[in-house]
Amino acid sequence: MRKIEVVRANVEDYQATPDGHILRVQGKGRHDKTECVVILPEFQVWLERYLATRVPLDDGDPLFLTMGKRHGHRLAPRTLRSLIFTALKMANVKRPVVTGPSLRHTAATMSLNGGAPVTAVRDMLRHASIKQTNIYVHTMNRVKEGGERFITQD
Fold first, then answer.
1. Share of residues in the chain with pLDDT > 90 (%)
2. Higher pLDDT, 52 or 147
3. Given the DSSP bridges, would you call strands 35-39 and 20-25 parallel, antiparallel or unpaired?
4. Cα–Cα distance list, 16 to 43, 44, 48, 123, 128 (Å)
5. Residue 21 forms beta bridges with which residues?
6. Superfamily of 1-94 according to CATH
7. For the chain, what are the domain ranges?
8. What is the mean pLDDT of residues 27-52?
9. Could you tell me which residues come within 8 angstroms of residue 65 by beta carbon, excluding any fewer than 6 positions away?
10. Average pLDDT over residues 2-10
11. Mean pLDDT across the chain, nearest whole number?
């Protein structure tokens, strides 16, 4: 997910479907929440626990709230970035170039490496064009089939 999608999410956007839970998101450059993110069962458990601490809930309430000085306000992008960095530090990820967007790109690459179709990854990333998603495929193929691998020592 993009940081802005997390920040904009409301309680009403978290929905159960016959195939599992989703989060309706307002895509980049869009005005309506017509796109969705599939909530994996492992995350659903944590989200349900978090929401259980926030009783009562109204549909228009922000899905994620701040804690601390501004307790109860909508999470700000800067606060979310700080939470991501804190979580990375706790996980002993020390590379300063690991950011929210790079985690999103990592998820795309891992999905493709795991066998997901390019169209499914495009939908996950909510790219407008398959060309954007094909960049990941090109990069993966470049590493797997790089011309350097065909240099012989003869």
1. 24
2. 52
3. antiparallel
4. 14, 10, 12, 19, 25
5. 16, 39
6. Intergrase catalytic core (1.10.443.10)
7. 1-94, 99-154
8. 85
9. 54, 71, 72, 73, 74, 75
10. 89
11. 85
